[in-house]
Amino acid sequence: MSEPDSEAPFCLPRMPLTRLPKKPLPLGTIDTHFHVFRSDAPLNTPCSYTPQIATTADWIAFANRLGIGRGILVQPSVYGLDNQVLVEALAAFPDRLRGIVVIDPETDPTEIARLDRLGVRGVRINTRNKGGLPLTAAETLAANIRDFGWSLQLQISPDQIDGLAGRLPHLGVRFVLDHLGFIPLADGAWRQHLPALQRLADNPSGYVKLTAPYRLTREHGYAGFAEVVQALAASHPEKLLWGSDWPHTELWSDMPDDADLIDGMQEAIGAPTLARKIFIENAETLFFGR
């Protein structure tokens, strides 16, 4: 790995998986959001954090232990437009992995076709981190990826959700909101943001990731997260995706326990039919149709 940016602090190392969840994940679970990092891969300048190394092999071991069948590898902001680590992972596990890249909006269709053959199924827009693509790239990207059936993956701020609910449906591609749009959970603040999430999911092309509650609140037990999950599962069960967010980058304290996170998610979802949709079926439709 290249020398870290002096303003990009090292993330905490992930916690080892010391126990399994109380209830096994549904057979065939798909992890729709994780990252990997290789020690010799150069970091983008600038970047928002310096990652701890967590390789594809590390995720495979993590997934095997938990019974996760397949995964969607998401390009982290610290690698900018250099998707080499992701591409190598897809090539190593073509039946098990699909990928979400970060590319120049003007990327040639022949390069998009090459990435598509390797298992890439979307492009990430990220307005929250250095090295991410801006929302202004959405129209150009959508036009270039539409024929490939790719989606736009969006890491944005809560105040951008409402505008997207009206803007994105006209782009003609599916779109996926990372980490519940970073809506704040503390003191019931999620209640004022829930309608915007539901409006976004009302669109046939809109999906929401139920991921990373530790990014939405500092409260112990992630108060409010279960309520948001339950409300969305009641209104839009076919539009929800689960992801581990492994290895939990950009944390400087309170590294979560993965088994605790899965326990909390399964308790919030409850019904096995809902669990199959959220842990398997919705992701299978979105990412593994071919």
From TrEMBL:
One of its GO terms (molecular function) is hydrolase activity. Transmembrane segments: none annotated. Residues 30-288 form the Amidohydrolase-related domain. Keywords: Hydrolase. The keyword Transmembrane helix does not apply. It comes from the Bacteria. It holds the Pfam family Amidohydro_2. The keyword Hydrolase applies. This is TIM-barrel fold metal-dependent hydrolase. It comes from Rhizobium viscosum.
